[in-house]
Amino acid sequence: MVDYMEGVYRRRVPDPGGELHAPPGRSAAARRRAQADIAHACERMSVDPGFVRLRRRFAIQAGLLVAAFLGSYMSYLLLSAYARDFMSIRIAESVNVALVMGIGQFLLTFVLAWAFGRFSERAIDPLAAQVRDRAAGGARPHPAARDGADGAAVRP
Amino acid sequence: MIGAVTGDGTAHLLAAPTALDGRFGAAHAWTIGLCALFVLVTLAITIRARRTTRGAVDYYAGGRGFSSTQNGLALTGDYLSAASFLGIAGMISLQGYDGFLYSIGFLVAWLLVLPMAQLMRNTGRFTMADLPAFRMRRMRVRLACTVSTVIVCVFYLVAQMVGAGALVSVLLGLHDGGTFLGVDAAQARTGAIVLVGVLMIVYVMYGGMKAATWLQIIKAVVLLGATGLLTVLVLAMFSFDPRALLGAAADASGHGPAFLEPGLGFGVEVPGEPATTMFNKLDLISLGLALVLGTVALPHILIRFYTVPDGRSARSSVNRAILMVGAFYLMTLALGFGAAALVGSERILALDPSGNSAVPMLAEELGRLTAGPVGAAVLLALISAVALATILAVIASLTLASSSSIAHDLFGHILMWGRPRESQEVAVARFSACLIGAVAIALAVQAQEQNVAFLVGLAFAIAAAANLPVIVLTMFWRRFNTKGVEWGIYGGLASTLLLMLFSPVMSGKTDPATGENLSVLPSWIDIGFFPLENPALIAVPVGFACAVVGSLLSPERNSARFTELRVRSLTGWGADQE
Q: Number of helices (H) and strands (E), helices first, in chain A?
């Protein structure tokens, strides 16, 4: 679950500086074994149907977001550069099309950001938690953390 | 250009008879008092942060314990430099709609950060180099990332520190060659640069990320509060009717309705010269591109995502930052048009061609209109103190980003082969903060007479052309490899710097009316053959192309590591235990 992920940080987990993150005093062979375990687990997770769905959802969602904002921003920029007669049409008193479209960019940004957050919470986060849970049932990603953070980490 | 507070930009601020005429006045007392209060509070926080900073996670990433609201505020603080506060409002006050066009680019850029934040939080640990190094465990990858991080940060730092010097000399009323308590303008500027430089070194050396984050949070709250206050005062002057404000601004600007239409500042149409017109318009597009693509790859923004517990909070902190940054830029709209309407473009322009003085002048005018001379002094002092706090906070973050990269990547992974002792690495980080700070102080003192506004734009362009291809391809392209990283970073960096060197910014730009030299280099050097002032339009595609070609030229591939990265970046699995 998601609180399972959060519980760990609030505790202080010792953070080794080295690249392999292995606690001191372990042999190179043990480190290699731990590394191979992780790689193996990831290989398994990457073909998990849940993960494939997660990947696709994220790609669609992020793609839509980026396409929408880049499209609207670039067309706004191009209109400002090349369609000045259109942009200077007055709508009400001193308010013209250019100004309304500018404010529109702000509103669109707010709406897109809100929508992305909302969809992520609904569709992405639960799926990611589910995939993680299933993986946690098999192999733990980091054997070293088992001693320190077990109480908070393992919550079936 | 972007960087608002510049060498001689603010130098002409407030030449009109005001509180700031070189004698010690009420405004000075208030300014110094407010600045001292800010410095004392932040130093207290630094001492507190030092007590709770024990290991590398604390120093580099603030213990990863900040909430998404705190981090959202800190991101806002990181992003809103003096260029945003003084520069954009000044631009709106002089160029009307085109200044507004500029601020939209700064905001929209965050929508690219939004999907990336989660992935970057889950993959990296402390620096930008951690992202590609997750897949490619080569020292050359780390070295390339360190080079681009340090270059981007130092350019940005120098621009901000020169701005601080200019601001202080103006606040003391030294712009016209006068003296203040026996100090002349050059000495005051040097003193200010050294002072903010030393403060920034203290914050970063002692407090690390915890101090830097709290500094940003306080600054963001103060900045949003002060801007909000001015906005309400401006709108109250026009009985809360935006149309009246716009109308008055257009009338007072001397441009009439054209003030509210595109074309005064960017993409200027020169009659009879179609080539110049075309390049002006391409420049506008190029600028927009640099802003939108550069933000996500700015090193000091990127390392903020490591201060939150997980990918989900990284994402929601970006959401909050978007809300606050957006609100801020909407308020600068009111400030800019308010300055145009109440102070008048003519007065702003007469004192300072770049418009950086618009907000302080507006504050003084509003203070006078609401509470007489005392109000003018207090409000002016408040805005000056906020501007200094803004600069101080931004440079602290930049120093932290570059010193982290030097300590974690260059020392930890290259010199020590990835096996440094944690205490050693943090000690090196503190030392390199000192070093970067000293280099930045020296450069800024040297450059204080120059117009360095283009450096901020250059930092965004380098981030977009050198860092962005590497981040994006690391996350999404299985075939990407070490050579691709190297080619991408060095190719993007070189193309941006070269295009800048041959652009009108460096040489060959003269004022059509007066014939005055507007470039950095002296007028007898003319090496400008690239017509655009913003290189992003060419440099970003070049950066991406270099990264792709470099990857394809090398047979290296590691599919297993990419799978691991993808699993981890999307699910966060394994990211928690580090």
A: 7, 2
CB atoms within 10 A of CB B191: 16
Could you give phi then psi for residue B180, rounded to 5 degrees? -125, 110
Residues of B with CB below 8 A from A117's CB? Answer: 114, 315-316, 319
Do B321 and B76 form a contact (C-beta atoms < 8 A)? yes
For residue A21, the SS3 value is: coil
With a CB cutoff of 8 Å and minimum separation 6, the contacts of B336 are: B88, B89, B90, B91, B92, B93, B96, B99, B100, B358
pLDDT in tens, B331-340: 999 999 999 9
In single-letter form, the type of residue at position B363 comes to A
Q: Is B267 on the interface with A (CB under 8 A)?
A: yes
Q: Radius of gyration (Cα) for chain A, nearest Å?
A: 24
B412 Cβ neighbours under 8 A, 6+ residues apart:
A17, B418, B420, B425, B428
Q: Residue B517: phi, psi to the nearest 5?
A: -75, 125
Q: Which residue in the block uniquely carries the two structure tokens 């966060």?
A: B572
In 3D space, the residue among B89, B119, B139, B50 whose CA is nearest the CA of residue B335 turns out to be B89
B406 DSSP β-pair partners: none
- Tokens 């990127």 label which residue? B302
Judge contact between A73 and B108, C-beta under 8 A.
Answer: yes
Confidence of residue B232 (pLDDT cuts 50, 70, 90): very high
B214 touches B45 (CB < 8 A): yes
Residue with structure tokens 């990433």?
B61
pTM of the model: 0.85
Q: How far is CA B200 from the centre of its chain?
A: 15
Judged by CB atoms within 8 Å, which residues 125-154 of A form the interface with B?
A: 125, 128, 131-132, 135, 141-142, 144-145, 149
Rounded to whole angstroms, the Cα distance separating B472 from B491 reads 16
- Distance (Å, whole) CA B441 – CA B193: 7
Q: How many CA atoms lie within 13 A of B363 on its CB side?
A: 28
How do residues B470-529 score in pLDDT, each as one tens digit?
999 999 999 999 999 999 999 999 999 999 888 888 877 777 677 777 777 777 777 778
Strands A95-96, A90-92: pairing kind:
antiparallel
The C-alpha of B421 sits at a distance from chain A's nearest C-alpha, in angstroms, of 7
CB B267 within 8 A of CB B280: yes
CB B96 within 8 Å of CB B341: no
Strand partners, A96: A90
* Shortest CA gap A111–chain B (Å): 10
Tell me which amino acid residue A142 is.
H
Whether the complex's predicted ipTM is more than 0.85 is answered with: yes
- Cα–Cα distance measured from residue B208 to residue B53, given in angstroms and rounded to the nearest whole number: 8
* β-bridge partners, B294: none
CB B307 within 8 A of CB B66: yes
Q: Which helix (H) or strand (E) holds B168?
A: helix B139-171
End-to-end CA distance of chain A: 8
CA distance A85 to A97: 10
Coil, helix or strand for A90? Answer: strand
Q: Measured between CB atoms, does A43 come within 8 Å of chain B?
A: yes
B67, two tokens: 């909430």
